[in-house]
Specification:
InterPro entries: RNase_H-like_dom_plant, RNaseH-like_sf, RNaseH_domain, RNaseH_sf. It comes from Oldenlandia corymbosa var. corymbosa. This is OLC1v1004758C1. This protein is an alpha+beta fold and about 150 residues long. It folds into 2 domains: about 35 residues, no CATH class; about 110 residues, 2-Layer Sandwich (Nucleotidyltransferase, domain 5). The strands form 3 sheets. It has a two-stranded antiparallel ribbon with strand order 1-2. A two-stranded antiparallel sheet has the order 3-4. It is globular. The two termini are about 25 Å apart.
Length: about 150
């Protein structure tokens, strides 16, 4: 909404210009009118939470990965982001908890990861070698609520 803010005796009055809004919306979304349909937005979200040993908050990160719809790829990318953040803040001892058993097993080199994730998992394995002490463990999704809520609220 376009707002005209007028000061009148110390009170703020807000006026909305609906006709202008409609024209502005159509101009900004002209591609939708040309295509005659709406293409769904493809995006995966990743949340990373770093806590102290006493579970108090240390760092957090939320990212969106455009054109990623495979949940395994999203989980692998989230793990990679966690490792990047660990390196950036200089963690010397870390335990990564992920709720994708496939990605955790692949990152620990206990199985082959899903084919779309192979390159990202290779990055994860390489990044783990640069950290002094690093463990990747699986937890149920129900225990990973905070990390999953980061992208929703960012």
């Amino acid at each position: 909404f376009e707002r005209a803010i007028l000061l009148d005796d110390g009170f703020i009055k807000v006026e909305f210009c609906i006709a202008h809004l409609s024209g502005l919306w159509q101009a900004r979304n002209s591609k939708l009118f040309e295509q005659k349909h709406l293409t769904p937005w493809k995006c995966a979200e990743a949340g990373v939470l770093i806590q102290h040993a006493d579970c108090s908050f240390m760092h957090g990160l939320a990212r969106q990965f455009l054109d990623i719809v495979d949940p395994n790829v999203a989980e692998a990318l989230a793990l990679r982001e966690a490792l990047f953040l660990s390196q950036k803040i200089g963690l010397s001892d870390a335990v990564n908890l992920g709720d994708s058993a496939l990605i955790v097993l692949a990152a620990n080199q206990e199985s082959d990861g899903p084919l779309p994730c192979v390159l990202v998992v290779e990055d994860v394995i390489y990044l783990c070698k640069d950290l002094p002490v690093h463990h990747i463990s699986w937890i149920p999704r129900s225990e990973n609520i905070i990390a999953h809520s980061f992208p929703k609220f960012s």
